[in-house]
Write a structure and sequence with these properties.
- The protein is 37% helix and 20% strand.
- It is an alpha+beta fold.
- It has a three-stranded antiparallel β-sheet with strand order 1-2-3.
- It is globular and about 55 Å long.
């Protein structure tokens, strides 16, 4: 069983739900639709060749030059995949064109470039 203060956990859960209602829920239908569209675009590009998908994301910051993935954000990095693959991670809360989640000391986990997928940022309805 979980330890700790049960009432504190309930208050925290209520706060997370209230935050979700205020920040995500008003935009979720639009964002979900754009995520589905982005997923379909990525799937089509993968079927035509994985390098097409990489070139479509942000060619000035992300390049595949076998066997090296070059990422230029925030500084130039060369990643040797060594058979680990690559996990492209869509983001909805980032305005950064490309970022990289990667631990160069962990050769078991694939690098994860993150790319924004929303066509336009969600706007507050004030």
């Amino acid at each position: 069983m979980y330890g700790g203060d049960c009432e504190a956990r309930r208050e925290f859960a209520d706060a997370v739900r209230a935050c979700h209602r205020a920040t995500v829920e008003p935009y979720w239908n639009q964002e979900r639709s754009e995520l589905i569209d982005a997923s379909a675009r990525c799937a089509r590009l993968m079927l035509d060749g994985g390098d097409l998908l990489l070139r479509s994301l942000c060619p000035s910051l992300l390049r595949w030059r076998p066997p090296v993935l070059e990422v230029s954000c925030p500084r130039p990095v060369e990643v040797r995949l060594q058979g680990r693959g690559l996990v492209i991670t869509p983001t909805v809360f980032s305005s950064i064109a490309v970022s990289l989640i990667w631990d160069p000391l962990d050769t078991t986990q694939p690098p994860r470039p993150t790319v924004p997928v929303l066509l336009r940022p969600a706007r507050c309805k004030a």
